[in-house]
Design goal:
heterodimer; A: 298 residues; mainly alpha; MetI-like fold; 15 helices; B: mainly alpha
């Protein structure tokens, strides 16, 4: 192919193709870049709209200021907490239940498996869900962030499919040696399913980090607010943002680095998005592989 | 007929260790039980809340003290003209955005086909990696990005467009009622196009390379190769996803519309899920429940219709 001379139509097609993908890719990352250079540039220049392609008068004041707002750092802790604990439990439960569902000898396996999978397609609706959560005393309660996500049908399907592809002889030889289900799960299934567990880990961590509706509905006490929820409030309620800027300790800020509603908004957005951008490259190869495994079975 | 090995094993095994088998049967069930209970509590128990649709329920007052009103809330949907108009408006928005989504669901297919035609491997990888990032951020964050790019006073893109006289000074992307359906679909694809293409790229990677070589020998052009080899290769995947989205015709979810809604665009952006949320926050719990109940019923019916369709067309069921 390399030595062949390309026809004009071919050249045109290829360049157009490269160009289109270049533009779309740029549109996918420019917003993040734009936000970043604006948060580290002089707030004055940023407010005047001068910061478009590269940062100027670089400073990190915005980040220190915004993180020193007490409600915000607490919200960051809540977000981190629900992400870490929620993800651990979700991955553990998905792995274990997915493994159990591969055991044909389980009593009523098909019925249980179907009843878990079917929940992907229907829901009772917002109000019945809210009333149930309320009756279970999960309003203003950390458990509301963690318990409902434990069972995520899609994860369970992924694990089950993956475990079924492992040669059964491995498990058989282990149980021949006297290993029980738990033993097989810990020493054989967990090590062999790491790729799919990594995929589930990133899915569920991203879900937890991005979750918003549950806070909006179930939490009225500020101590349960997450970063996403605060960001949403700052985007919509200029009053709460103004109060926050007024109350922030304004010690040695030079005039040009004064926080404005826009700079606070942008900085909070950046703080919420950064963990995802940082973790993403490490997990990318896993979840592309993982989702393809899921795709093969449909 | 003789007995096959498989049958023989099946016949022999239960006799071998019946007691242990029996124990394992229930042991496994009890190991799964805690998780099944969680499933029941968070997915099945809320269905009992549908009962609120039949009462004049007011939050804070126990259900036993509220009057039973039968189908009153369902009737208001059809008998009260203002209410009917509201529901029709919301239904129109819902179906408009769902059908736009269905029509444009060929986008990831086109994306995948064109990307697979890119020769430079590093470029393909780079595009694939960077275009999947937006899929992992929340709609609130998408809105925050949109806000900083498109808002009237600070948005860089609004600035540029006004500078070049492409739009008027007062044009506000985020608070405009016109074109909101198209804008919403555009944001949707910005967020999910790269991710949606991954499945199709996997399907394309699975196509036998010999087919392409054979076609090349026969003198097939690029377009012919795409049309006769690549497209048939990914049609099954496309079909499954299309059928699944039919089941979700009335479920657009609400986070996207919730993040982008404001007083100006509310009329055209309110889809069923968001509508339920909004009336629930106006404290009309029974009506909100009635609407979401009908919605669930409709989507289950649609799912079964899609399933039947799948069985007829592809001889395979999706659930």
């Amino acid at each position: 192919m390399k030595n062949k001379k390309m026809k004009p139509g071919e050249v045109f097609f290829q360049s157009l193709n490269y160009l289109l993908f270049g533009l779309f890719t740029l549109s996918c990352i420019y917003p993040f870049y734009y936000l970043f250079i604006n948060t580290i540039s002089s707030n004055d220049l940023s407010a005047a709209g001068y910061i478009k392609f590269y940062p100027r008068d670089i400073h990190f004041d915005n980040y220190f200021k915004v993180l020193s707002i007490s409600g915000l750092s607490h919200a960051a802790l809540v977000s981190v907490y629900r992400t870490v604990v929620g993800t651990l439990l979700t991955v553990g439960a998905s792995a274990f239940l997915g493994y159990l569902f591969t055991k044909k000898e389980m009593w009523g396996r098909q019925v249980w498996y179907r009843s878990v999978v079917v929940t992907m397609y229907f829901s009772a609706g917002l109000i019945p869900w809210y009333i149930t959560m309320n009756n279970l005393h999960l309003t203003n309660n950390y458990l509301a962030y963690i318990l409902p996500s434990i069972i995520t049908p899609f994860n369970i399907i992924l694990v089950k499919t993956f475990v079924e592809a492992i040669p059964p002889s491995l498990e058989e030889s282990a149980s021949m040696d006297g290993a029980g289900y738990m033993r097989v799960f810990w020493s054989i299934i967990i090590p062999l399913t790491t790729p799919i567990l990594a995929t589930i880990t990133i899915f569920s961590a991203v879900n937890q980090w991005n979750s918003f509706i549950d806070t909006a509905f179930l939490m009225t006490d500020t101590k349960y607010f997450t970063l996403q929820f605060l960001l949403w409030r700052y985007l919509n309620e200029s009053s709460s943002l103004a109060a926050l800027i007024r109350n922030s300790p304004d010690m040695a800020a030079s005039i040009q680095n004064m926080q404005t509603p826009t700079s606070v908004r942008m900085t909070v957005t950046m703080i919420v998005v950064l963990p995802i951008l940082i973790v993403y490259p490490f997990f990318q190869r896993f979840f592309v592989k993982g989702i393809m495994i899921g795709a093969v079975k449909g | 007929m003789g007995v096959t090995t498989g049958e023989l094993i099946r016949k022999v095994q239960p006799v071998k260790r019946p007691r242990r088998k029996m124990q394992n049967k229930y042991k496994l069930f009890f190991m799964a039980l805690p998780f099944l209970i969680v499933t029941f509590i968070f997915y099945y128990l809320p269905i009992s809340g549908w009962i609120y649709a039949f009462y004049d329920f007011i939050p804070g007052i126990p259900l036993s003290d509220t009057p039973y009103v039968g189908l009153k809330w369902f009737r208001t949907m059809v008998s009260n003209p203002t209410q009917t108009a509201e529901v029709m408006r919301v239904l129109k928005n819902t179906l408009a955005m769902s059908s736009l989504g269905l029509i444009t669901s060929v986008f990831p297919v086109i994306f995948a086909i064109l990307l697979s035609e890119v020769k430079a491997g590093w470029y393909r990888k780079l595009v694939q990696t960077l275009t999947t990032i937006p899929n992992f951020i929340s709609w609130i964050l998408v809105y925050a990005l949109a806000f900083s790019l498109f808002s009237v006073d600070n948005g860089v893109i609004s600035h540029i467009l006004v500078q070049f006289g492409l739009v008027g000074e007062d044009f506000n992307f985020l608070a405009s009622n016109s074109n909101i359906w198209v804008t919403m679909i555009a944001w949707y694809w910005w967020k999910s196009l790269g991710w949606g293409a991954i499945l199709y790229l996997a399907a394309i990677a699975g196509i036998d390379q010999e087919l392409y070589e054979a076609a090349e020998v026969d003198g097939a052009s690029r377009f012919r190769k795409i049309w006769h080899i690549t497209v048939p290769g990914i049609i099954p995947t496309f079909f499954v996803l299309l059928l699944l989205s039919i089941g979700n015709l009335v479920n657009n979810g609400m986070e996207q519309y919730f993040a982008f809604q404001n007083a100006m665009n509310k009329d055209s952006i309110e889809v069923l899920d968001l509508y339920v949320y909004n009336i629930a926050f106006a404290n009309n719990f029974p009506f909100a429940t009635a609407v979401s109940m009908l919605k669930s019923v409709v989507s289950v019916v649609l799912l079964f219709a899609a399933n039947t369709l799948s069985k007829v067309v592809r001889d395979e069921s999706i659930i």
